[in-house]
Sequence to fold (164 residues):
Amino acid sequence: MTILNKKIKAFTISELLVTLVVSTLVIGLAMLILNLINKQLGMMHSNTNGQTEVRLLEKALQRDFNTHELFMNARKHQLQGVSEKDTVTYKFSESYVIRNNDTLEVPIFTMLSYLDGNLTVHGAIDALSLQLSKTLSAQKIFIYKTKDAAFYMNDMGSSSKRKE
Fold:
């Protein structure tokens, strides 16, 4: 008589269930971590794009301040620069700035313009202060026209002629 008492090497159902549960936990944690990393990368990307737009606006304003005569029209939220070569127009809104045909997504919270250190809302300006919105960490930009000694000497000469 032969006894059929042969054991087949295999996993038990409880071992397979434990493996399945552990694998599910590991895959779930991996997906959660991947999702968090993806959100962080998205936030870094949007922050970098916002900072790039701010730097582009700042460079354009600095260049135009030193190459154009600038005039502010606060009612229209418009800044116009005039030079012998060309004319530049900035239009400021709450969510973007338009420079001629270029649109920069820089939200402006407040804008102040100055002439010789005095606050002005209309006419010629030589400095501009921009307070950006809270989406860009409430950053401040201050742009001014660089004036050399000849400007002040010529200005003083013309003002003394006006007095006479």
Observations:
- The longest helix spans residues 13-67.
- Confidence is low (pLDDT under 50) at residues 157-164.
- The radius of gyration is 32 Å.
- Helices lie at 13-67, 149-163.
